[in-house]
Amino acid sequence: MNEILVAPSFAATTTSRERLALYVHIPFCRTRCTYCAFNTYAGLRARIPAYVQALQREIRLVGAAADHRPGILSIYFGGGTPSQLPVPAVGQIVETCQQAFSLNPEAEISFEVNPGDADAAYFAQLRRAGVSRLSIGMQSANESELRLFARRHTPNDVPQTVRLARQAGFASLNLDLIYGIPGQTLSMWQHSLYYALRCEPDHLSLYSLSFEEGTPLHTWLRQGRVPLPDPDLAADMYDWAADTLQAAGYEHYEISNWARPGHACQHNVHVWRNLPYLGFGAGAHGYAGGVRYETVTNPGAYIARINAQSEPLPFPLSAATAETLPVERREAMADTMILGLRLLEEGVDSAAFRAHFGCSPHEAFGPALQRLQAQGLIEETADGRIRLTRRAYLVANRVFVEFV
What contacts 391, CB < 8 A, 6 or more positions away? Predict the structure, then answer.
Protein backbone atom coordinates (compact mmCIF):
# COMPACT_ATOMS: atom_id res chain seq x y z
CA MET A 1 0.00 0.00 0.00
CA ASN A 2 1.08 3.56 -0.63
CA GLU A 3 0.71 6.24 1.99
CA ILE A 4 -1.57 8.95 0.59
CA LEU A 5 -4.14 11.20 2.16
CA VAL A 6 -6.31 11.93 -0.88
CA ALA A 7 -8.75 9.75 -2.72
CA PRO A 8 -7.32 7.97 -5.79
CA SER A 9 -8.23 9.28 -9.23
CA PHE A 10 -9.94 6.17 -10.61
CA ALA A 11 -13.54 5.15 -11.22
CA ALA A 12 -14.85 4.09 -7.82
CA THR A 13 -16.72 0.79 -7.69
CA THR A 14 -18.69 1.89 -4.64
CA THR A 15 -20.14 5.24 -3.66
CA SER A 16 -21.41 6.85 -0.51
CA ARG A 17 -24.94 6.14 -1.81
CA GLU A 18 -24.60 2.43 -1.11
CA ARG A 19 -25.59 0.97 2.22
CA LEU A 20 -22.63 0.63 4.56
CA ALA A 21 -21.48 -1.10 7.70
CA LEU A 22 -19.37 0.68 10.32
CA TYR A 23 -16.45 -0.78 12.24
CA VAL A 24 -15.24 1.08 15.36
CA HIS A 25 -11.87 0.00 16.74
CA ILE A 26 -11.22 0.29 20.48
CA PRO A 27 -7.49 -0.47 20.96
CA PHE A 28 -7.40 -0.44 24.78
CA CYS A 29 -6.83 -3.52 26.95
CA ARG A 30 -6.00 -4.07 30.60
CA THR A 31 -3.50 -6.77 29.56
CA ARG A 32 -2.45 -8.25 26.22
CA CYS A 33 -3.14 -11.89 25.40
CA THR A 34 -0.17 -13.99 24.31
CA TYR A 35 -1.73 -14.85 20.91
CA CYS A 36 -2.97 -11.37 20.04
CA ALA A 37 -1.57 -9.61 16.97
CA PHE A 38 -4.32 -7.00 16.73
CA ASN A 39 -3.68 -3.29 17.21
CA THR A 40 -4.09 -3.18 20.99
CA TYR A 41 -2.37 -1.39 23.87
CA ALA A 42 -2.30 -1.99 27.62
CA GLY A 43 -1.86 0.79 30.14
CA LEU A 44 -3.38 3.62 28.08
CA ARG A 45 -6.75 3.99 29.79
CA ALA A 46 -6.01 7.67 30.48
CA ARG A 47 -6.27 8.30 26.74
CA ILE A 48 -9.82 6.96 26.47
CA PRO A 49 -11.68 10.31 26.84
CA ALA A 50 -9.55 12.02 24.18
CA TYR A 51 -9.80 8.95 21.96
CA VAL A 52 -13.61 8.88 22.15
CA GLN A 53 -13.75 12.57 21.23
CA ALA A 54 -11.45 11.91 18.25
CA LEU A 55 -13.63 8.97 17.16
CA GLN A 56 -16.71 11.16 17.20
CA ARG A 57 -14.90 13.84 15.22
CA GLU A 58 -13.68 11.34 12.62
CA ILE A 59 -17.19 9.91 12.20
CA ARG A 60 -18.63 13.41 11.67
CA LEU A 61 -15.91 14.38 9.18
CA VAL A 62 -16.31 11.26 7.06
CA GLY A 63 -20.09 11.56 7.20
CA ALA A 64 -19.85 15.18 6.03
CA ALA A 65 -17.74 14.09 3.03
CA ALA A 66 -20.46 11.78 1.69
CA ASP A 67 -22.61 13.05 -1.18
CA HIS A 68 -25.65 12.24 0.95
CA ARG A 69 -26.31 10.48 4.27
CA PRO A 70 -25.42 6.83 3.60
CA GLY A 71 -27.66 4.16 5.11
CA ILE A 72 -25.96 2.16 7.88
CA LEU A 73 -26.89 -1.49 8.39
CA SER A 74 -24.63 -2.33 11.32
CA ILE A 75 -22.02 -1.05 13.75
CA TYR A 76 -19.35 -3.35 15.16
CA PHE A 77 -17.26 -2.33 18.19
CA GLY A 78 -14.08 -4.43 18.08
CA GLY A 79 -10.68 -4.31 19.67
CA GLY A 80 -8.85 -4.46 21.82
CA THR A 81 -11.46 -4.56 24.53
CA PRO A 82 -14.50 -2.35 23.85
CA SER A 83 -15.78 -3.11 27.35
CA GLN A 84 -12.94 -0.90 28.61
CA LEU A 85 -15.11 2.03 27.50
CA PRO A 86 -17.48 3.64 30.01
CA VAL A 87 -21.06 3.16 28.79
CA PRO A 88 -21.74 6.91 28.30
CA ALA A 89 -18.88 6.91 25.76
CA VAL A 90 -20.48 4.02 23.87
CA GLY A 91 -23.77 5.91 23.78
CA GLN A 92 -22.02 9.04 22.51
CA ILE A 93 -20.38 7.10 19.67
CA VAL A 94 -23.67 5.47 18.64
CA GLU A 95 -25.44 8.83 18.77
CA THR A 96 -22.73 10.38 16.60
CA CYS A 97 -23.20 7.60 14.04
CA GLN A 98 -26.95 8.35 14.03
CA GLN A 99 -26.25 12.04 13.43
CA ALA A 100 -23.59 11.58 10.74
CA PHE A 101 -25.31 8.79 8.80
CA SER A 102 -28.76 7.31 8.28
CA LEU A 103 -28.77 4.52 10.85
CA ASN A 104 -31.32 1.80 10.17
CA PRO A 105 -33.65 1.52 13.21
CA GLU A 106 -33.11 -2.25 13.10
CA ALA A 107 -29.33 -1.95 12.72
CA GLU A 108 -27.29 -4.65 14.42
CA ILE A 109 -24.89 -3.05 16.92
CA SER A 110 -22.31 -5.58 18.09
CA PHE A 111 -19.97 -5.13 21.02
CA GLU A 112 -17.05 -7.30 22.16
CA VAL A 113 -16.71 -7.97 25.88
CA ASN A 114 -14.38 -10.04 28.05
CA PRO A 115 -15.91 -12.48 30.57
CA GLY A 116 -16.00 -10.97 34.04
CA ASP A 117 -15.38 -7.40 32.87
CA ALA A 118 -18.94 -6.11 33.14
CA ASP A 119 -21.57 -6.17 35.87
CA ALA A 120 -25.37 -6.11 35.61
CA ALA A 121 -25.52 -2.30 35.60
CA TYR A 122 -22.97 -2.07 32.75
CA PHE A 123 -24.94 -4.49 30.59
CA ALA A 124 -28.26 -2.76 31.30
CA GLN A 125 -26.80 0.62 30.34
CA LEU A 126 -25.14 -0.88 27.26
CA ARG A 127 -28.48 -2.23 26.09
CA ARG A 128 -30.10 1.16 26.63
CA ALA A 129 -27.29 2.75 24.58
CA GLY A 130 -28.49 0.73 21.59
CA VAL A 131 -26.12 -2.24 21.60
CA SER A 132 -28.08 -5.30 20.46
CA ARG A 133 -25.48 -8.08 20.15
CA LEU A 134 -22.59 -9.16 22.39
CA SER A 135 -19.51 -11.17 21.43
CA ILE A 136 -17.92 -12.71 24.52
CA GLY A 137 -14.24 -13.76 24.40
CA MET A 138 -14.50 -17.13 26.15
CA GLN A 139 -11.59 -18.78 24.22
CA SER A 140 -11.43 -21.90 26.43
CA ALA A 141 -13.02 -23.65 29.41
CA ASN A 142 -9.67 -25.12 30.49
CA GLU A 143 -7.76 -23.13 33.10
CA SER A 144 -4.35 -24.25 31.77
CA GLU A 145 -5.18 -22.86 28.32
CA LEU A 146 -6.46 -19.59 29.74
CA ARG A 147 -3.18 -19.23 31.66
CA LEU A 148 -1.20 -19.95 28.46
CA PHE A 149 -3.12 -17.15 26.76
CA ALA A 150 -2.70 -14.78 29.77
CA ARG A 151 -6.46 -14.39 29.92
CA ARG A 152 -7.72 -12.67 33.07
CA HIS A 153 -11.00 -14.56 33.40
CA THR A 154 -11.79 -18.01 34.74
CA PRO A 155 -14.14 -20.57 33.13
CA ASN A 156 -16.81 -19.70 35.72
CA ASP A 157 -16.86 -16.09 34.57
CA VAL A 158 -18.37 -17.14 31.23
CA PRO A 159 -21.79 -18.46 32.35
CA GLN A 160 -21.99 -15.60 34.86
CA THR A 161 -21.39 -13.06 32.07
CA VAL A 162 -23.96 -14.77 29.85
CA ARG A 163 -26.51 -14.74 32.69
CA LEU A 164 -26.03 -11.02 33.34
CA ALA A 165 -26.26 -10.22 29.63
CA ARG A 166 -29.49 -12.19 29.25
CA GLN A 167 -30.98 -10.45 32.30
CA ALA A 168 -30.17 -7.11 30.67
CA GLY A 169 -32.18 -8.10 27.60
CA PHE A 170 -29.52 -9.23 25.12
CA ALA A 171 -31.17 -11.69 22.75
CA SER A 172 -28.12 -12.35 20.56
CA LEU A 173 -24.90 -13.59 22.17
CA ASN A 174 -21.74 -14.99 20.60
CA LEU A 175 -18.97 -16.99 22.27
CA ASP A 176 -15.45 -17.08 20.79
CA LEU A 177 -13.44 -20.30 21.17
CA ILE A 178 -9.94 -21.32 20.09
CA TYR A 179 -8.78 -24.82 19.11
CA GLY A 180 -5.46 -26.25 17.93
CA ILE A 181 -3.75 -25.02 21.11
CA PRO A 182 -0.31 -26.37 22.17
CA GLY A 183 -0.88 -29.38 24.42
CA GLN A 184 -4.63 -29.45 23.75
CA THR A 185 -6.20 -32.89 23.43
CA LEU A 186 -9.45 -33.72 21.69
CA SER A 187 -11.12 -34.28 25.07
CA MET A 188 -9.99 -30.83 26.26
CA TRP A 189 -11.50 -29.27 23.16
CA GLN A 190 -14.70 -31.23 23.63
CA HIS A 191 -14.90 -30.00 27.23
CA SER A 192 -14.62 -26.37 26.06
CA LEU A 193 -17.28 -26.70 23.39
CA TYR A 194 -19.71 -28.60 25.63
CA TYR A 195 -19.14 -25.96 28.33
CA ALA A 196 -19.98 -23.26 25.79
CA LEU A 197 -23.11 -25.06 24.64
CA ARG A 198 -24.38 -25.27 28.21
CA CYS A 199 -24.40 -21.46 28.17
CA GLU A 200 -26.87 -21.62 25.25
CA PRO A 201 -25.25 -18.98 23.01
CA ASP A 202 -26.98 -17.89 19.82
CA HIS A 203 -23.73 -17.85 17.87
CA LEU A 204 -20.30 -19.50 18.10
CA SER A 205 -17.05 -18.44 16.45
CA LEU A 206 -14.39 -21.18 16.46
CA TYR A 207 -10.88 -20.19 15.45
CA SER A 208 -7.82 -22.34 14.87
CA LEU A 209 -4.92 -20.83 16.81
CA SER A 210 -2.42 -19.01 14.62
CA PHE A 211 1.07 -18.08 15.76
CA GLU A 212 1.42 -14.49 14.59
CA GLU A 213 4.90 -13.02 14.38
CA GLY A 214 5.62 -10.61 17.23
CA THR A 215 3.34 -12.35 19.73
CA PRO A 216 4.68 -14.14 22.83
CA LEU A 217 3.25 -17.44 21.60
CA HIS A 218 5.18 -17.14 18.33
CA THR A 219 8.37 -16.45 20.28
CA TRP A 220 7.77 -19.40 22.62
CA LEU A 221 7.14 -21.68 19.65
CA ARG A 222 10.36 -20.57 17.95
CA GLN A 223 12.27 -21.13 21.22
CA GLY A 224 10.77 -24.58 21.68
CA ARG A 225 8.97 -23.59 24.89
CA VAL A 226 5.60 -24.70 23.50
CA PRO A 227 5.01 -27.55 21.03
CA LEU A 228 3.67 -27.03 17.52
CA PRO A 229 0.06 -28.29 17.50
CA ASP A 230 -0.71 -31.33 15.34
CA PRO A 231 -2.59 -30.06 12.24
CA ASP A 232 -4.34 -33.43 11.79
CA LEU A 233 -5.62 -33.23 15.37
CA ALA A 234 -6.79 -29.67 14.78
CA ALA A 235 -8.68 -30.89 11.69
CA ASP A 236 -10.32 -33.61 13.79
CA MET A 237 -11.33 -30.95 16.33
CA TYR A 238 -12.93 -28.86 13.58
CA ASP A 239 -14.81 -31.79 12.07
CA TRP A 240 -16.07 -32.94 15.47
CA ALA A 241 -17.22 -29.41 16.32
CA ALA A 242 -19.04 -29.07 12.99
CA ASP A 243 -20.93 -32.33 13.54
CA THR A 244 -21.70 -31.51 17.18
CA LEU A 245 -23.01 -28.03 16.42
CA GLN A 246 -25.13 -29.26 13.53
CA ALA A 247 -26.73 -31.81 15.86
CA ALA A 248 -27.33 -29.00 18.38
CA GLY A 249 -29.28 -26.96 15.82
CA TYR A 250 -26.61 -24.46 14.72
CA GLU A 251 -26.21 -23.50 11.08
CA HIS A 252 -22.64 -23.60 9.77
CA TYR A 253 -22.99 -20.44 7.72
CA GLU A 254 -19.32 -19.38 7.45
CA ILE A 255 -16.08 -21.35 7.67
CA SER A 256 -15.46 -20.42 11.31
CA ASN A 257 -18.96 -19.39 12.39
CA TRP A 258 -22.14 -21.17 13.48
CA ALA A 259 -25.47 -19.60 14.42
CA ARG A 260 -28.95 -20.45 15.48
CA PRO A 261 -31.46 -19.48 12.76
CA GLY A 262 -31.69 -15.71 12.51
CA HIS A 263 -28.52 -15.03 14.52
CA ALA A 264 -25.77 -14.84 11.89
CA CYS A 265 -23.56 -11.78 12.46
CA GLN A 266 -25.01 -9.33 9.93
CA HIS A 267 -21.98 -7.04 10.08
CA ASN A 268 -19.56 -9.81 9.12
CA VAL A 269 -21.92 -11.21 6.47
CA HIS A 270 -21.93 -7.74 4.89
CA VAL A 271 -18.12 -7.75 4.78
CA TRP A 272 -17.96 -11.33 3.43
CA ARG A 273 -20.25 -10.23 0.60
CA ASN A 274 -17.49 -7.73 -0.27
CA LEU A 275 -19.83 -4.81 0.33
CA PRO A 276 -18.53 -1.39 1.47
CA TYR A 277 -17.82 -0.63 5.10
CA LEU A 278 -16.16 2.22 6.97
CA GLY A 279 -13.46 1.77 9.61
CA PHE A 280 -13.01 4.30 12.42
CA GLY A 281 -10.34 4.46 15.11
CA ALA A 282 -6.63 3.68 15.38
CA GLY A 283 -5.64 0.82 13.09
CA ALA A 284 -9.13 0.37 11.63
CA HIS A 285 -9.60 -0.89 8.07
CA GLY A 286 -12.31 0.13 5.62
CA TYR A 287 -13.43 -0.46 2.05
CA ALA A 288 -15.56 2.10 0.20
CA GLY A 289 -15.34 4.35 -2.83
CA GLY A 290 -13.21 1.79 -4.68
CA VAL A 291 -10.41 1.93 -2.12
CA ARG A 292 -9.25 -0.16 0.81
CA TYR A 293 -7.69 1.91 3.55
CA GLU A 294 -6.16 1.72 7.01
CA THR A 295 -5.85 4.37 9.69
CA VAL A 296 -2.71 5.15 11.65
CA THR A 297 -2.19 2.55 14.38
CA ASN A 298 -0.86 4.58 17.31
CA PRO A 299 -3.71 6.02 19.42
CA GLY A 300 -1.78 9.20 20.21
CA ALA A 301 -0.99 9.83 16.55
CA TYR A 302 -4.59 9.05 15.64
CA ILE A 303 -5.91 11.60 18.14
CA ALA A 304 -3.44 14.25 16.95
CA ARG A 305 -4.25 13.76 13.26
CA ILE A 306 -8.01 13.93 13.74
CA ASN A 307 -7.79 16.97 16.00
CA ALA A 308 -5.67 18.75 13.38
CA GLN A 309 -8.18 18.12 10.58
CA SER A 310 -10.38 21.12 9.85
CA GLU A 311 -12.26 20.09 6.69
CA PRO A 312 -13.58 16.78 5.34
CA LEU A 313 -11.35 14.90 2.91
CA PRO A 314 -12.70 13.00 -0.10
CA PHE A 315 -15.04 10.22 1.05
CA PRO A 316 -14.28 7.85 2.80
CA LEU A 317 -10.90 9.10 4.07
CA SER A 318 -9.88 11.20 7.07
CA ALA A 319 -6.67 12.78 8.31
CA ALA A 320 -6.04 9.57 10.24
CA THR A 321 -5.77 7.56 7.01
CA ALA A 322 -2.26 6.11 6.79
CA GLU A 323 -2.52 3.86 3.75
CA THR A 324 -4.83 3.42 0.80
CA LEU A 325 -5.02 0.80 -1.93
CA PRO A 326 -7.11 1.38 -5.05
CA VAL A 327 -9.11 -1.76 -5.87
CA GLU A 328 -9.34 -2.29 -9.62
CA ARG A 329 -12.12 -4.32 -11.23
CA ARG A 330 -10.19 -7.60 -11.52
CA GLU A 331 -9.12 -7.48 -7.88
CA ALA A 332 -12.66 -6.62 -6.78
CA MET A 333 -13.93 -9.68 -8.64
CA ALA A 334 -11.32 -11.89 -6.96
CA ASP A 335 -12.15 -10.45 -3.54
CA THR A 336 -15.84 -11.16 -4.15
CA MET A 337 -15.08 -14.80 -4.95
CA ILE A 338 -12.70 -15.32 -2.00
CA LEU A 339 -14.90 -13.63 0.58
CA GLY A 340 -18.17 -14.99 -0.79
CA LEU A 341 -16.96 -18.59 -0.76
CA ARG A 342 -16.47 -18.27 2.99
CA LEU A 343 -20.27 -18.15 3.26
CA LEU A 344 -20.88 -21.88 3.11
CA GLU A 345 -24.60 -21.98 2.26
CA GLU A 346 -24.90 -18.67 0.43
CA GLY A 347 -21.67 -18.83 -1.55
CA VAL A 348 -21.25 -16.52 -4.55
CA ASP A 349 -24.47 -15.65 -6.36
CA SER A 350 -23.63 -15.74 -10.09
CA ALA A 351 -26.53 -13.43 -11.00
CA ALA A 352 -25.49 -10.81 -8.43
CA PHE A 353 -21.88 -11.12 -9.60
CA ARG A 354 -22.94 -10.43 -13.20
CA ALA A 355 -25.15 -7.53 -12.16
CA HIS A 356 -22.22 -5.88 -10.37
CA PHE A 357 -19.33 -6.67 -12.72
CA GLY A 358 -21.02 -7.19 -16.10
CA CYS A 359 -19.76 -10.76 -16.46
CA SER A 360 -20.34 -14.11 -14.78
CA PRO A 361 -17.86 -15.83 -12.44
CA HIS A 362 -17.30 -18.41 -15.19
CA GLU A 363 -16.41 -15.70 -17.69
CA ALA A 364 -13.99 -14.14 -15.21
CA PHE A 365 -12.47 -17.27 -13.68
CA GLY A 366 -13.49 -20.16 -15.95
CA PRO A 367 -10.28 -22.25 -15.86
CA ALA A 368 -9.92 -21.87 -12.08
CA LEU A 369 -13.54 -22.86 -11.46
CA GLN A 370 -13.18 -25.88 -13.75
CA ARG A 371 -10.07 -27.05 -11.87
CA LEU A 372 -11.71 -26.62 -8.48
CA GLN A 373 -14.87 -28.41 -9.57
CA ALA A 374 -12.83 -31.30 -10.98
CA GLN A 375 -11.02 -31.57 -7.63
CA GLY A 376 -14.34 -31.70 -5.78
CA LEU A 377 -13.63 -28.47 -3.89
CA ILE A 378 -16.53 -26.37 -5.20
CA GLU A 379 -20.06 -27.04 -6.39
CA GLU A 380 -22.68 -25.03 -8.23
CA THR A 381 -26.31 -25.15 -7.16
CA ALA A 382 -29.32 -25.19 -9.46
CA ASP A 383 -29.95 -21.49 -8.77
CA GLY A 384 -26.40 -20.50 -9.77
CA ARG A 385 -24.63 -20.26 -6.43
CA ILE A 386 -20.98 -21.33 -6.31
CA ARG A 387 -20.06 -22.85 -2.95
CA LEU A 388 -17.32 -24.77 -1.21
CA THR A 389 -17.91 -28.48 -0.75
CA ARG A 390 -17.60 -29.96 2.74
CA ARG A 391 -14.20 -31.45 1.90
CA ALA A 392 -12.91 -27.95 1.05
CA TYR A 393 -13.66 -26.39 4.43
CA LEU A 394 -10.30 -27.39 5.91
CA VAL A 395 -8.31 -26.55 2.77
CA ALA A 396 -10.14 -23.38 1.77
CA ASN A 397 -6.87 -21.55 1.12
CA ARG A 398 -6.22 -23.98 -1.75
CA VAL A 399 -9.44 -22.68 -3.28
CA PHE A 400 -8.86 -19.01 -2.57
CA VAL A 401 -5.37 -18.93 -4.10
CA GLU A 402 -6.90 -19.81 -7.47
CA PHE A 403 -8.40 -16.31 -7.64
CA VAL A 404 -5.28 -14.37 -6.67
Answer: 376, 377
